[in-house]
Amino acid sequence: MFRSLISRSASLLPQAARGHLGWLRGAIGGAIGIVTAGALTMILLGSNARGFPLLVAPMGASAVLVFAVPASPLAQPWSVIGGNLLSAGIGLAIGHALGQPMIAGGIAVGLAIACMSLARCLHPPGGACALLCALGAAGPEAWGWSYLWPIALNVGALAGAGWLYNNLTEHPWPHRVIVPAGPPPAPALDYTHADIEAVLADWNEVLDVDVDDLDAFYRALQRHVVRRQRGGQARD
C-alpha cells in the first residue's frame, strides 16, 4: 500500500541532489528566497515592523513552486505576485464584511480561486493567503488593509530572489519554451518510456506533469492524428 501511495508522486521529481533540477538546488533557493523576503520586509517596514508579521506562511508554499518547479505555469511571476496579492485582498475584504472566521475563510478561498482563474494567475498558495487574511480580518486582531504591506513585500522579495536565482542557475524564469529547430517529425513515431525521460533530462526542467501522463497524452495525440488523416483520405 505504501509503495502504491508514493509511486505516482515519486516519479514526478528527480531524486538526485544535483542535475536535472535536483532537490539540493531547490532547497538552497527556497532558503535564500525566504530569508530574503523576511530580511527585506524587516528593513523596509523599519519601526513599523513590530506591528506586522515579517513572514507569512503562504510564502513557504510559493517558494516550493518558484525554486523546485520553476517551469510550472503555477510558478510563473504573474501567478506568484498576482495570485498572492489578489487573494490576500479578497481575504481581507471578505473577513471585514462577514466577521465570522469560518464562513469568511471558506468564501474567501472560493472567490480567490475564481478570481485567480479569471485573471490567469492561478497559484495554490494564493488560497492560503486568502484564508490567512480572512481569518485575520474576521478574528480578534481585526487585521486592517495595512497588512497588505508585509505580504506585498514578502511576495516582491520572493519573486525577485526567484528571478535572480533561477536565471543564475540556468533555468530561465519566467519560463520560456524552447522549440527544437528543423522540420517537425512524422506523426507516427515509435518511442519508449525511456525516450520521454531522456527528452526531459535534455530539457533539464521538471514539468508539473507525471511522465506516465505525458506518455498517455502522446499516445492519444497519435491516435487523433491517425483518425484525422484517415478521415481526410476518405473525403478525398
What's this, in brief?
By secondary structure, the chain is mainly α. About 65% of the residues lie in helices and about 0% in strands.
Annotation keywords:
236 residues; mainly alpha; 0% strand; 9 helices
Structural features, described:
This protein is 66% helix and 0% strand. With 236 residues, it is mostly helical. The protein starts with a helix and ends with a helix. The relative contact order is 0.14. The model has no long low-confidence stretch (mean pLDDT 85).
Record the SSE blueprint.
Elements: H1 2-10, H2 23-45, H3 58-68, H4 77-98, H5 101-118, H6 124-138, H7 148-168, H8 193-203, H9 211-235
Residue share in helix = 55-70%
Structural class: mainly alpha
Q: Estimate the mean pLDDT confidence.
A: 85
Gyration radius, to the nearest Å?
A: 22 Å
Give the SSE order as H and E letters. Answer: HHHHHHHHH
Spans of at least 5 consecutive residues whose pLDDT stays below 50 are: none
Largest sheet: none
In whole angstroms, the N-to-C terminal distance is 54 Å
SS element count, helices = 9
**So what's the overall shape?**
globular
Task: Work out the strand percent.
Answer: under 5%
Count of β-strands: 0
